[in-house]
Batch of 3 targets.
Target 1
Amino acid sequence: MSVLDVADRLWRGEPVDFHPMVPAGDIVEVADRVAFLPGFANVSAMRTDDGLLLVDTGSSFTADRVHEQVRSWTGAGGPHLHTAVYSHGHIDHVFGVARFEAEAADRGWPAPRVLAHEALPARFDRYVLTAGYNGVINQRQFQVPGLRWPTEYRYPDETYRSDLSFALGGRPVELHHARGETDDHTWTWLPDSRVLCCGDFFIWASPNAGNPQKVQRYPREWAVALRAMVALAPEILLPGHGVPVIGADRVAQALTDTAELLEHLHDDTVAMMNEGARLDDILHTVRAPAHLMERPYLRPVYDEPEFIVRNVWRLYGGWYDGNPATLKPAPDAALAREVADLVGGAGRLASRALDLAATGAEDDLRLAGHLVELASLAAPDDRSVHLARAEVFERRVAAATSTMAKGVFAWAASESRARADPPPEREN
C-alpha cells in the first residue's frame, strides 16, 4: 500500500496500522516535479531546471536512505541539490545534507546551500551546551538506551527573519517563519503547485505543543500560522511527520481543526489564569473539545492536550504553580518519609498504590503513581516497594496513549525493575 493510499484510508477513518513517527513507504510524486518521502521525519523535494530543493533532510540514521530514495526519483545523474530548507532544528530533520555534499564534491557539482530561520543556529549552540541532558531525556522519551546526542551540526549558510521569497529554476518558493513547536520554525509554500510543506505545524497527531521534557512551545502563535496557511488555499499538505493530505477541502479542515484545538486550550487556560486559578485547578478543568479529539489526525498518540495546558501556564505564568508549599519545598524524600511514618510505613503506601492501580481507572492510576513514588522515596532500598512501583508504572504505560507519557512511565518502571532484580554479581 502506497503512502497516499494510507493517507486516504486514515482520513476516512478506516483501520490502518499507523503511527505518525514511523510511516513507511518509498518516495512518491505528489504534484508536478514535487515528491514526498515518508520517514521518522519526512522529506519533501522539488525538481527544477537549476537543481533540487529539499524541505528537511532527515536524521543521521536515515541520511543514506534519503539520498537513495531521492536519486531513485530523479535518476542517478542529478540534478544536484541546490537548496535545502530546514523547517526547524530538531535533529531528525537536519542531518541529510552531508550525503549530497559528498556527491557534489565527487561529481564537480556546486555545493548545496542551506536556508533556515535566524533562530536556528542558536538552537544548535544550545544542543551542544546541553548534549548530556538531551541525551538523557531522549533516551527516556523514545526508550532508546545509550542514545548519544550529537554535538556537530551542519549550520545554515543563509538565514532570514520573517519571510523569504526566491525562485529556483523559474519555480517560486516562499519561506515563512512562525513560532510553534519551536521558535525557529519555517513553513514553505510552493505556489505553482499549490503545495504546502508545513514542517511540524501538522503531524497527524495532537500538536506537539506540550512535550514535558523539552523547551517552551507557542500554541497561540502556532494557531495563527495555521490560519495563515489556510488562507493560501493549498491543495496538498506535506507534513513534517505523518502522511500527506491531498485535496484543498481536506487540507483546510486539517489545518483549521488543529488551530481550533490549540486556540481552545490556550484561551481556556489563560481565562482561568486571569481568574487566579492554580495550575492544578486548570489542569483538571481545561479539556480539549471531544469532537476534535476524535479526528484521526488529532489523536493524542505523541503529545497530549494536558501537556499543552502546562506549556501555556509556563509561557505566561512561570514555574510557580500557585501552591505555596511548592514555592520552597522540602526535599521529596523527606516528605515521603514523613508521610510513610504517618501511615505505618512505605509498604502500606505501596500496597494501597497497587490496590488503586488494579482498578484501571484513570483517576486511581494517577493517585497510585503518587503513592508508590512516595513509597520508593521513603524506602529506596526496599525490593517489594520497587516491585510495586514497577507494576504501577507498567499499568500506566498500558493505559497511556501518548509517546511522551509512555516513555516517562516506562522509564520509571524499568528503574524499579532494575532495583528489584539487580544482575547477579560476576564470579572472579
Note: The mean pLDDT is 96.
Target 2
Amino acid sequence: MQIPYEQLDTATLEALIEHFVLQEGTDYGEHEVTMERKVEDVKAQLKRGDAVIVYSELHESVNIVPRDQVTADEE
C-alpha cells in the first residue's frame, strides 16, 4: 500500500528518509555528498513522483522505492 508523503508528519518523513539514506549506502561517485543533500534528493524524488513510500502489511515495514518497482497490489 502506498502512503502519500504529504500525509506524514514532517519529523516522521525526515526520519524515514534519513533511515532510507543510511541503509542504502548509495555511491555518489568521487565527490562526498552530505546527509542533508541526500535527504533533499530523496524528498525531490518523492515530490516528482519518481519514488514512493510503500507500507508492507506482510513485513510490517515502510520503505521508499522507485515508482517503477511498485507492483499493482501496492498501488
Note: The chain has a mean pLDDT of 88.
Target 3
Amino acid sequence: MMRFLFSFVLSTVFIQTSFSQQELINVLSLSNGSYIVKAPSSYSYSNPTAMDVVGWSPEALIDGKKNKGWCSAGIKFPYEFVIELPEKYLIEKLGFNNQCEKKLLGICAKDIKIEFSTKGAETGYVEAYKGTLNDYGNDTSMVIKPQEARWIKISVLSNYGYTKCVELMEVQAWGKYVSSEIKPIDISGTWETNWGKACLVQSGTSASGNYEHNSGVFSFGGIERRMVTFKWSESTGKSGRTVLVLNEEGTRLTGIWCYGNDLTKYGFWIFKKIPNEQCEVKSTEAAITEKLKKELDEQGKLIVYGINFETNAAIIKPESESVLKQIVNLLNANPALKINIEGHTDNVGEETYNQQLSEKRASAVKDYLVKNHIATARITAIGKGEKFPIADNLTELGKAANRRVEISPKIN
C-alpha cells in the first residue's frame, strides 16, 4: 500500500529584514528553479530521471557543484546557453568557476559574454558583462550595474587554445526579486513531466496530485509564493520530497526531488502545462484524515507545509484555513492523540530572532486548534528555529523546504 504525507506550507520567510534588504539569490541554479531553454551541443547529457546531474552536461553548468561542469562536443564558437528564470530578478553580481581538467591544457573557457532580457528568450537582450576568465580560475565574482533579467544568455566566445572542446564549470547570477508580491497562483491541471503525465489539483494553499510513473502520488502539498512542496510516493514503496517553482506564465514548474527528506542530494524535475486539459484528484475529508494518521503512525511525525504567515509575524493568513481544518479533523478523529507542534525556519536572519519567531508561529497554530475546540492539554508548541534543516539553505527551494512545521505524537 502506498504511504502518504499530508503537507502544508509554513509560509513567508523567517527574517527580520525588509524586502529591499533581502539576501541575494543565485538565480542561475537548478535548485532555484532555473530552466535551460537553449544549450549548445555538449559532451554529455543528463538523464532526466536520474538522481543526480551528469558531469559535462548543460545542467552541470548551473547545478551549484564545483566538481562538475559543462563541456562542448567539438569546437565551434560561440557556444550559447539561454536560461529562463521563474520571474524577474534584479541582478547585482556575477560569478564564475573555471577550474577545468588540468590534464587538458587550454581547455578552459576564455572570453565570455553575459546578456539579460526581460522581453523573451529570443529577443531584447542587453549586455551585462563581457570579459576574460582566468585560465583554471577558481571562484571569482564581480559586482555589476544592477539590471533586471528574466532570461539570461551565456555566450562562450573562445578558450585557451585546446582544439577539441571547451569546458566551463559554473556560472552564477546573484539578484533579488523585482516584485515583493505576486498574484495568486493555480497549478491545477495536467502536466507533462520527466516522470510521465501528472495531474495536479490546488485548493487555497494546499495541493495534491498523481503522476504516471509507478502509479505515483503527490500527497497534499503546500504553496508558498511560487514554490510548491509535495511528498511523492510510488507503488514500489519508494517515496521522497519535491520542491518546485512556478514560472510567471503558469506554464512550467521546475525544481528538485529527493528520496526521503534529504534534499541536499537531488535530481531535477520539470513540469510543462498541457493547455486546456483538466484532471481530477478525488479525496474525501475522511480519506485525508486516514492518510495523516497512517503517516504519523508509520513515520513518527508529519512534515507540515501550507500554513502561511504575514511577513515577520505570527499572524496566520486566511488562505491557510483549509489546511488547519484538516489538522483539527485529525485530532477530532483521534481523541486520545496528543501532539507536539514544532516550528522550523531557514537560516535567513539572526538565529535568536528565528528561534523566537518559530516559537510564536508554533503557538499561533496551537491557538487556532484551541479556538476550534481542541483541548489545550493535547498540544505543546515548540520552536526549533534554524537548527534542524532538511535541505541546503544556499538555495531558495532548499530554504522553502526548511521552513516547515512538524507534528509528532506527544508522550503523556
Note: Residues 22-177 form a domain with the Jelly Rolls fold (CATH 2.60.120.260).
